[in-house]
Design goal:
The chain is of the alpha+beta class. It has two helices and seven strands.
């Protein structure tokens, strides 16, 4: 019985979230919070594509209050992780979505 519970628990957790093990680092300009996402412009080859981060670690928020406008326009080195989570679309179908979580911030000049 215990074995079945362990197998079910492992299957559940393996289907609900997948985390990359290596953090990713980019440099970008903080644009503020838009509809619950933390928005950064990440310059690449002369372009400025937006990156939307859904979560920020407690440590990063303690160091920089991104909810205020104090850091809008500031340049940051952003360390983040990607995870894949299961969600439901409007029709109730399960879909896999990419979630970005900021794990570290460093203010740049």
């Amino acid at each position: 019985m215990k074995t079945k519970l362990i197998i079910i628990a492992l299957a559940f957790f393996s289907l609900t979230s997948f985390t990359t093990t290596d953090p990713i680092v980019v440099t970008g300009i903080y644009k503020g919070v838009v509809e619950y996402d933390y928005v950064f412009n990440i310059p690449e080859n002369g372009k400025s594509p937006k990156m939307l981060f859904q979560y920020v670690s407690e440590e990063a928020l303690e160091a920089f209050d991104l909810e205020s406008d104090d850091f809008v326009g500031s340049k940051f080195k952003v360390t983040y992780e990607k995870t894949m989570e299961m969600s439901e679309d409007a029709e109730g179908n399960e879909i896999e979505i990419e979630v970005l979580t900021i794990t570290g911030l460093e203010l740049k000049d």
